[in-house]
User: Fold these one by one.
Assistant:
Number 1:
Amino acid sequence: MREYISLATVAARAGVSVSTVSRIVNGEMRRASPATVARVLDAIEAVGYRPNPVGRALQRGQSQLVAMIAANLDNPAMATIASSTEAALREAGYVMVLCDTHDRPELQDEYLYAMRAQMVCGYVLVAAVPSRGLSELSASGAPTVFVSRRNPVGNGPFVGIDDCAAGAAVADYFANLGRRVPAVVFPRLGSSASRDRVSGFLAKLRERGWSDKAIIQADGEGRSHLQVGYNAGARIFGGSDTPDSILCVSDQIAYGVNRRALERGLKIPGDCDIVSIDGTPLNQWVAPWLKSIEIPYAVYGAEIVAGLQLIWRGESFGERLLPYKFG
Amino acid sequence: MREYISLATVAARAGVSVSTVSRIVNGEMRRASPATVARVLDAIEAVGYRPNPVGRALQRGQSQLVAMIAANLDNPAMATIASSTEAALREAGYVMVLCDTHDRPELQDEYLYAMRAQMVCGYVLVAAVPSRGLSELSASGAPTVFVSRRNPVGNGPFVGIDDCAAGAAVADYFANLGRRVPAVVFPRLGSSASRDRVSGFLAKLRERGWSDKAIIQADGEGRSHLQVGYNAGARIFGGSDTPDSILCVSDQIAYGVNRRALERGLKIPGDCDIVSIDGTPLNQWVAPWLKSIEIPYAVYGAEIVAGLQLIWRGESFGERLLPYKFG
DNA sequence: CTGAAAGCGCTTACAG
DNA sequence: CTGAAAGCGCTTACAG
């Protein structure tokens, strides 16, 4: 496993210099005579040569590695983003390195530095948290795409949905259905995405005549959104008013809320409608009671890679808000 | 982003040669005078030097990258394996590259070749499928750990559970409960793991007095185990005998079977008990009706990395069967 | 105890 | 149209 077929092998076989082989490997066909090109191509074929990305990376000061730094792979939404990004990168000839920060800034920084050392050619930050390293990355101008959560320490290319509009759509849905006691559940330490979903929801309800105090708001704590929902559920179903409609800013929060609702003997749907924002395919199988705004995570990968390619070409890429499906 | 602090920078600052700095960076402290060591350490600190893994990889013929080649990241069990492996590798100073083969042999091969070119120092194959490239890898003796499914084209280090025993445990459980019409649901194109679970289940039932025809066996097709279960469910609940107990070889199959059961108006549990082998944490939240053999996926990562480290040290590592929890 | 030198596989001005 | 040479950052015999 320690023998690699190098340019030199091919060059020797074709009777030319490594420079010539290198150029041809890199597609500069016109700079060599057709006869030479043919001979080199034959030699490549014959010995089964494949360019060594490590040598190339060292020389170019940049590898074909793209770092995906995600907050939590156990979250199915992030797993789907990772999976679709991986597929899109492979198709474009890149290799994805996966880093799971568990939402911890120190780990995020550790990875950011390690990836820089690996000379990665790009960064995909899914639900990034503020950190020193992120600020440095931001300032360095390295090719970076933020996903789901916007850059928490500046701005930069973003792939996601219009979170405000999504929240508002749920508000309209509840209002049109004639619901009177709406609630919203979100994580205590929310991202820009959570916040926008909540504020879009609240703004639209106000617009449609609700007073702020008529809307139940519950944040929850926990290391997973399941816990967040379960914890917030305790307060939501324990107050004087029981909501007849609940927006959960993620599927997993809805699962947690639902479990609490079941424990309290509530019928869902029926006593109370729950809508979440995520719409993971799993819902249809294990949570038919749940209505969702469907975020097209499976196409995130393609958009992220398209964004990176624009940036590599020096073109600008501000943000890409993908359409979601509801109902 | 194109400036990297190199050994040369440190050497210049410390007034020594790069060789000396290199040795010290690599922990060969005793080969330099204490004064030199101190000076070099200071310089490293002062300029914030970090070894460049690319240069190192090229020289050593081996990177610090470990390839994780998994069949399907959308499966929560694999996502958990990926996540725990990633954490364990990071702790050990390695970086994980993630490849999702979607269970396709050509893609698996593409990745295997690409990873070889990246000079990865190890392979983690989760649910590998037979392929040309896998045979080559197998023959090459490269450090490899197979996870969940054993090497389908030979043998090699394995991390998983005793699938046969797990299947048998479920058979005992059903028998002790007094169930009369057991069934088992598995994917048509099964892995060694599926097969072992099924055969362990069947063998134990036979031992306890069932005849083969008294056990309902249903395989299912589909691109996901959810589909597999749903499809097999149609046949299971459509026959002359309705089972009173079902073993599903994975959680997702159980979700699919359950959905079909609900459509047929069956009560679960009650009319029929379902037990699955996986025991993903999500079950407690979205499938309280499901009893499971719990596979400790969260500790797979540590075992996998421990296995790789044994192999790297030249020690042998046959297989590691982890204990599962049931009930 | 320390350094000069070669080389890992590659790319890229530069000279011819 | 082609090649010799330098260099990306590192490690490692080898010589002193």
Number 2:
Amino acid sequence: MDSPRRTTIYDVAREAGVAASTVSRALNNPRRVNPATRDHIVAVAERLGYRPDPLATALQSGHKATIAMLVPDITNPHFFGTIRGAEKRASEAGLTFILANTEESADNERNRIERLSRSVDGFVLAASRMEEETTRELARDYNLVLVNRQVRGLPSAVVDNGAGSRQVVEHLASLGHRSLVYLSGPHRSWPAAQRWRALRAAAEAHGMAARRLGPFPPRAEGGGVAADAGLGAGATALVAHNDLLAIGMLRRLAERGVSVPGQVSVVGYDDIFGADLCVPALTTVAGPQEEAGRAAVELLTRKGSLSRSQPAPQQVVLPSHLVIRRSTGPAAP
Amino acid sequence: MDSPRRTTIYDVAREAGVAASTVSRALNNPRRVNPATRDHIVAVAERLGYRPDPLATALQSGHKATIAMLVPDITNPHFFGTIRGAEKRASEAGLTFILANTEESADNERNRIERLSRSVDGFVLAASRMEEETTRELARDYNLVLVNRQVRGLPSAVVDNGAGSRQVVEHLASLGHRSLVYLSGPHRSWPAAQRWRALRAAAEAHGMAARRLGPFPPRAEGGGVAADAGLGAGATALVAHNDLLAIGMLRRLAERGVSVPGQVSVVGYDDIFGADLCVPALTTVAGPQEEAGRAAVELLTRKGSLSRSQPAPQQVVLPSHLVIRRSTGPAAP
DNA sequence: CAACATTTGGCAATCGCTTGCCATGGCACG
DNA sequence: CGTGCCATGGCAAGCGATTGCCAAATGTTG
């Protein structure tokens, strides 16, 4: 900053009557220096209010004590939990936390990574939009951990929508629904694929018909078209790619005078803030997003320290579950 | 990161047949070097994929190209807009954006500032919880810009809830309300004070009675007590410190079978995501939060460059306005 | 008490870049 | 043709830490 001048390791050294190197050791590698001198140095450092300069440290040692998280859209409430979890864990680990918005663009993502690479120890990529191949390639040069996306060979923390999706189907089946429509998210969305896979499999197992429509923009604005499309498909149950889309659909359905859940049931994913506020309150698949954020940072830090001894990257999978609210009900006859 | 070795300014220098200093100048201070050499150097740098190391640059020049934003509670949707605005502007200005959660604690805030001070050019403090005096003190050593808080002598960007608050009163008065209760936010909250001041003044001007209750935790969980307290005070209009609190109150009122807006009207502040989803949709004071975030970063960057010539710190004030939805209606007789 | 091992602390190089100062060369001018 | 000025580029000194290597001091052992 612009303050007069911060106290450096040299100030401490002079004041303590030792060499700078000794100060450095006393602080970082305490057993390398005599307890008496160490205590003295620590005391002096304390008194002078010495704080190591992270930049200088990083420049020399390569250890930046900083990580960056890249998010496709900070605005999307879906990411809040993950961001929060990651920030928290980072802060606990004494890491500086950089947040960057990539605006849903793989190019942006890549650029940000390259731009930031010198400043951080690693990246948490939330719902990355990049191609698998590109990701893998970048992972050779940089420390990457994925959240809510899996790529073979790369560490990741994901919420498994499989369990939740199966519960969706069971729930719907038990209410007498014979068919469902999945209103899909972005074409290249990993969770979208995962969700559809699970839904279809479960539906088949329950003798239910399942169709996929879309892709739709995973925002409330996409709900209009999605609702109309879903209605057109003639299903009694509409499963939206995420809550935002579901909420948009709810609006559209209300506009069209279609009763939910009387005529049609609606399900979302993510259990975002607001999912229980809308009318009717949304039945949705919830997952421990915050936990996923934490886990990702955890993986990142762990990775750094054991890089040699641990060739197999970790893949953390966290379970999801269905939260039943008012937007689902018995199938219309 | 851990890649083999990045190309440095020396690599470029050697390859281009000039001194490192010339490369540096060619890139940062183009007019200081002959156009021909410059072009050549730039070309070589390009070819070698040279990227300056931000850490080394910062260490030497003191220019970190990084700012940090401190937020009391990342989880609170109220801040999303501000965060987004700030991040966006920072990114546009080529600044790295650090986000830190201070968990509603002034001590945390202070510590974070001190911890990060060496790594950043300045701080954006959103809804700071620190005492005026402490803040001013810190501002002597560090570059600070406040958001949604004003402290004399410090630059800030705030959403003026005055206009919105007056509109609230006018709106309620026109619906026949003769009294209102303000369910206050945290004791030391600057917006809380500001809101109450404006409400009271406007109420007086309209011959309306106004009382303040609280403080209440500015979260949905606080809504229960707040609603009960408000009801107990016997007012026909409840103005909550923010939407979260208002939503919590709505829930409690529904629980108690109190009709909104039939028996009592409810107003919030911030127009957060979800305010239009709840039942009844919330009448609330909206402000350009994203704009405030942008403005704050703007002030921060501007400040740096003109530090000498501009002694008077800027205070940006952005207007708010009332958004009328369903939670307000004619006063019960 | 000599010979050797172990601590302990200092010197100096280094990380990658910026920048003050100086040396050089070309040019215009008197 | 001599002088002075300006444009241009290089040298080298930092910025604030870490760390390999070495020297001195201390302790251990036969």
